[in-house]
């Protein structure tokens, strides 16, 4: 899994003194984008063939507060013909406690055709090498 530090902003915290549940999605996005950029550089932004998020779900396990040091751990758990399954955790960087976890599915996508495409072999190879699959 790739670990990405995340800075909590004052605006992320609600009147209860903890990070609002809707903000966790932006943290998952930060981790997902860091993962894709580190493995593929600009491949997903500069070319027609990319991946898009088609499913996401989350479980909230522990409150996150403004002064918590957190990070997002991101990894791929499976690759199908047209999809990439991803698992993420928002963790306290000091204690290791998991504050939230997410399961998501990315689909290969052609911007020009506006439809799903198979996962390219070069993407599959890079992910499998990184994840030791």
Explained architecture:
- The protein has 133 residues and is of the alpha+beta class.
- It has one domain: Thiol Ester Dehydrase, Chain A, CATH 3.10.129.10.
- The chain has three helices and six strands.
- Strands 1, 2, 3, 4, 5 and 6 form a six-stranded antiparallel beta sheet that branches.
- Strand 5 and strand 6 form a beta hairpin.
- The longest helix is centred in the N-terminal third of the chain and has 17 residues.
- It is elongated.
- The model has no long low-confidence stretch (mean pLDDT 94).
**Spatial gap, N to C terminus:** 12 Å
Radius of gyration: 16 Å
Q: What is the CATH topology descriptor?
A: Thiol Ester Dehydrase, Chain A
- Oligomer state of the chains in this structure: single chain
Give the rounded overall mean pLDDT.
Answer: 94
Counting structural domains, the number is 1
Entry keywords:
single chain; 133 residues; alpha+beta; Thiol Ester Dehydrase, Chain A; 6-stranded antiparallel β-sheet; 3 helices; elongated
Brief synopsis:
The chain is of the alpha+beta class and 133 residues long. The protein has one domain (2-123): Roll (Thiol Ester Dehydrase, Chain A), CATH 3.10.129.10. It has helices spanning 24-40, 43-46, 121-131, and strands spanning 2-6, 49-60, 70-79, 83-92, 98-110, 115-116.
Write the layout of secondary structure elements.
Layout: E1 2-6, H1 24-40, H2 43-46, E2 49-60, E3 70-79, E4 83-92, E5 98-110, E6 115-116, H3 121-131
Antiparallel strand pairs: 1-3, 2-5, 3-4, 4-5, 5-6
């Amino acid at each position: 899994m790739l670990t990405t530090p995340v800075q909590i902003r004052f605006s992320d915290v609600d009147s209860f003194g903890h990070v609002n549940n809707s903000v966790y999605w932006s943290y998952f996005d930060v981790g997902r984008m860091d993962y894709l950029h580190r493995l593929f550089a600009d491949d997903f932004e500069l070319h027609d063939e990319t991946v898009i998020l088609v499913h996401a779900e989350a479980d909230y396990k522990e409150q996150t507060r403004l002064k918590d040091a957190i990070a997002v751990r991101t990894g791929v758990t499976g690759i199908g013909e047209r999809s990439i399954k991803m698992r993420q955790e928002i963790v306290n960087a000091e204690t290791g406690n998991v504050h939230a976890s997410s399961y998501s599915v990315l689909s290969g996508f052609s911007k020009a055709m506006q439809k799903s495409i198979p996962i390219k072999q070069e993407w599959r190879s890079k992910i499998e090498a990184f994840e030791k699959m």
